[in-house]
């Protein structure tokens, strides 16, 4: 079964669960997200359990009915089998199986059996699958009375029956061989209707392309046995992207977030992505005021190898006393107002991220664009001290519409306490505001090839030329040609023009019954050729700028700046952050790119548009005549 088919089937199961909720009056209810995610998780754990027992027990590998074979086992054999399962597998009793509930769905008060089953699974697996509150209380996997979200008590059993009926028609068995990208797609689809902020903290979901570029820039090859922390974790998209880049078995995740809802999403995300071993480090609590991840002596902060975060921007009214007492302000406290409150917490977060790093640690985070040159209170002084450490590595400007619910631009900050000595007095600025793929009118993203190209700029800045050469090789292999990239762009553009003409002629000439089939055939050919042209254009974009692999400043795109005037090189293009008054805004350094000729003949294109407009007007007039004639015949 293909990945596309597995994704489609999984999405259909999610849609079916949402339909059941809608049919019982729970569509768009505040409880819907909890019902959908918990029942989805129950199905996942059930199927993962069955999958793992087949791997653990030779006699079950080829069984046509694993659940029946397990039911036929003696209790002693069953307990022995439980001991063979991986620690990340939920331990299920025989009466926990979905098949057991399906066989008892017509029992009286079935909803009580349904609820008690989920609750018992929660208690049986409390030590491994629970997350904690700041006070140490355990938050279980499932609610004790999930069916009571249905207001009418006489419909609760029917609701649970309907859910079970949907679960038995689907299996996750083929999904367990899939990797991070599959589960990222499914997770995004699962929570997309619930990705709205119910509290003061930011979005639950950081877009995949933002998370990917942060992870790729931060993680060097061969990274092992490291710790990753996100103090405003949301649903965990950033820590999951980093874990995927490092290797899920090579890192331990630590998180804290004030939102209960986002912590529930995060737990599900960790379970789906084989990071169950990190669940014990997920804490529900307010990071700004009460950090929970402390050192072993409990007298200071725990230090981490990696910090990633997309914190809420511009949080106000943070008690200054609490912020100071937490011991996370290496550059001083942002200015407080007359109420002893910090009016904008952006520089609290920035200071916190730095404070949590160990001696070789790296940080990558999303921040409001205004923070790069903020002069609120003593923000500039904090920023100056931060820059003078030599540990600010890269700053990237991101354009509008990268987030699902926010259209404003943002910036990506990167710290590296282990920077090479030759880079200590430098910062790389990238302005990527005009480099993106438009998904639709309200949403932009970086394509996979654009992510690779942006990452290349950082590689070359760090002197990693071999990675650049490997990417050029990847482009050539994908395109299947050794021609220069600009030649390939030209050739593919011409082929696409000819194919469009051919398609139009073929569809017009086709028999009426064959037109749709013919159109689909050519649409498929056009899509493949268009994709190839897009790849060629991205390859050409990269090669035109960096040729054989030497970093150079590109007007409007990237610039290396020196920290101080003294460190600035003698060349005429040298620029320092000091002379820019300690601003970290990429646009202040990279300049504005010259306007490129898009190759379109203006007069020719305007003639085409005018001709198209006249055709549309003629068609509109004909249609109006037909409508008028029909209305007259109707006596109107």
Keywords:
single chain; 636 residues; alpha/beta; eleven-stranded mixed sheet; two-stranded antiparallel ribbon; globular
Overview of the molecule:
The chain has an 11-stranded mixed β-sheet, sandwiched between helices. Strands 7-8 form a two-stranded antiparallel ribbon. It has a two-stranded antiparallel ribbon with strand order 13-14. The chain is 46% helix and 12% strand. It has helices at residues 3-23, 32-56, 66-71, 75-84, 98-103, 110-124, 126-129, 156-168, 180-191, 208-218, 237-246, 260-272, 320-325, 346-355, 379-388, 448-461, 465-479, 485-509, 515-546, 587-590, 602-633; strands at 131-133, 138-139, 226-230, 251-257, 282-284, 304-309, 318-319, 341-342, 357-368, 392-398, 410-416, 426-431, 437-440, 443-445, 558-562. Strand 1 and strand 2 (138-139) form a beta hairpin. The protein has 636 residues and is an alpha/beta fold. Helix 1 packs antiparallel against helix 8 and helix 17 runs antiparallel to helix 19. It contains 21 helices and 15 strands. The radius of gyration is 29 Å and the shape is globular. The longest helix has 32 residues, at 515-546. 36% of the residues are buried.
- Biggest sheet details: 11 strands, mixed
Low-confidence stretches: 197-203
Strand content range: 5-15%
Radius of gyration: 29 Å
* Helical content (DSSP H or I, runs of 4+): 40-55%
Envelope shape: globular
The count of β-strands is 15
Coarse structural class: alpha/beta
